[in-house]
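Issue 218. Parser rejects a valid record. Input:
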Amino acid sequence: LNVIKSEYNQILKSRSYTREQVRIIASYQTAKHSLSTQIAYSSGLRAHELFTLEKASIQPADERPAHKEKFLGREGELYTVTGKGGLTREILIPYHLAEKLEQTRLAEPKLIEDRGVFYKQNYNIAGGKNFSNSFSTVSKNRLNWSGGAHGLRHSYAQERMKELQMTLTRDLALEIVSQELGHFRPQITEVYLR
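Output the parser choked on:
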């Protein structure tokens, strides 16, 4: 096949949000969407992963290499989410958000469909396309721009890199952040650091 080069320059700018921008967005969302925004920001989640949240003691993570410094400097409750490719990984949710999350636990899990994929949802919180749309709408209305809900993962990666590099080398910090995000290949995480 012939290679076709675009006449447009690729825009390589950050999609990340500051803590204050996330606070503003969350304050203009419904309680359900606001909690999802706060959890996605503090734990580096994709929009669809919010549907798959479960306590790590109930739904264990898949066996993968994990550095002993994973989640260094942060405190919270261990949960798991299932991401792209079906990988179930551990995440850390700050205690105050874990407490709010547990207040939304469903009596019985429900099957939910989002973008043609079915998920077993354990908590009555927003996720997927509906969450992404809410986040982008409020971001545009209140900040006059949007990096999308995926920008919260970029924020997580950048903040964690700064935290970890205070005591660790850049390469080691990058390896740990890639594990926390479920990449397991530091090169992928580099994209989040722009």
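Fixed in the parser; the record now loads. DSSP finds seven helices and five strands in the chain.
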